[in-house]
Amino acid sequence: MLNQIIAASLRNRVIVLIAALFVGGYGIFKAARTPIDVLPDLNRPIVTIMTEAHGMVPEDVERLVTWPIEQVMNGATGVFRVRSASGLGLSVVYVEFDWGTDIYRDRQIVTEKLQLAVANLPPGIQPILAPISSIMGQIQMVGFQSETGETDILELRRIIDRDIRPRILSLSGIAQIITIGGQPSELQVVVDADKLRTFDVTLQEVAEATRKANINVAGGFLNIGSKGPLVAVSGLLQEPDELTRAVVRSDPTRPIRIDDVADVVFGPAAIPTGTAGIGGKPGVLMVVMKQPGIDTQELTRRVNEELRQIQRELPSDVVIDNAVFQQALFIERAIDNVLEAVRDGAVLVVIILFLFLLNFRTTFITLSAIPLSVAIASLVFAAFGLTINTMTLGGLAVAIGTLVDDAIVDVENVFRRLHENARRDRKE
């Protein structure tokens, strides 16, 4: 069989050459468009259900929240295993599906099952599905810091949560962004108990006035001939001072306002649970997570480009350090290893074949085997839906060494046999 293939290739050298050029070119074309990741996806499809239960201890979270959700998820179509973790005010349920199932169909199954569990949960508890993320989804950590301290850590966190985080999330391929450091800020009404007694105002009245001061209401329609424009009263707050003027209790002489009994200030929204530092100084870290199947290098490039535009809009004392951690650097190193293997293999081919055999054709044939083999490997990746990652690139680097060794031995053997046959023909 092998002899027939060799004989057919020798009889149709032009066709073989054209086919080799086509396969090599198409393989390089597919390789340039194959997603690049740091590691292959080795996990089953997993759908994560997160449920906040404020004020509940872990035992109550397990009994009242986690257990009802686990009950409805067990036995769902395609479910392989259900795991969970219950903590202070938080329940996390991991639903693992069988290999080969579509993650989007799996999420639809979980969503339908969750409707059955909601009826058994405590009032006000609403489970949500975590975004789809890759096994190595943490592609980048971006640091934000004030060089002079002019922008405090609370204001820096507010800028990130309000302006920067939505812009990065709008990029295609981003699954989630986790912010570490600082504290989420909120507009707080700090009530003075002495002033409440002085004005004879209850805390419930202040809370009700705060709620009513930040709503939009509709005023119906105006009948103007054949037209009926909608009347709307905008009551959403634009500035903190607007809340201070909200009326707590009406009085014909002097109404009691919120600023009479309380101070309105921006403050931390929760008890701090963590901190972040950059270069030994306080800062805020933004962890960028990507979706599965997205090219890590391309996504990192787009994130860095967006960060360069954001840097021009930030206060002058705030700097962005986008090199705290980048997965793309590991991938670039793996690609460099493959390129070094190709280079070393080409050098060995030139030294051994050309200098020892003094034949340009044998050297060229062996050199062409290296890129052609890599191109065919990329076609195999595309056919089986594989990604280019550090494991496959490492395998290619090792395989190139074996490829060069076999090519040198085979080509040298063929070259020697051709010379022996030529000398035998002359003697006969």
Description:
This protein is of the alpha+beta class and 428 residues long. The chain contains 13 helices and 16 strands. A four-stranded antiparallel beta sheet has the order 2-3-1-4. Helix 2 crosses helix 12, helix 3 packs across helix 4 and helix 12 packs antiparallel against helix 13. The longest helix is centred in the C-terminal third of the chain and has 38 residues. The two termini are 30 Å apart. The model has no long low-confidence stretch (mean pLDDT 82).
List keywords for this structure.
4-stranded antiparallel beta sheet, 13 helices, alpha+beta
Per the principal axes of the C-alpha atoms, what is the gross shape? elongated
What oligomeric arrangement do these chains adopt? single chain
Please summarize the sheet with the most strands: 4 strands, antiparallel
**Percentage of residues in helical conformation:** 40-55%
Mean pLDDT: 82
Strand content: 15-25%
Element string (H = helix, E = strand): HHEHEEHEEHEEHHEEHEEHEEEEHEHHH
Regions with pLDDT < 50 over 5+ consecutive residues?
Answer: none
- What is the count of β-strands? 16
Name the strands of the widest sheet in spatial order: 2-3-1-4
Counting helices, strands and paired strands, the structural category is alpha+beta
How far from one another are the termini? 30 Å
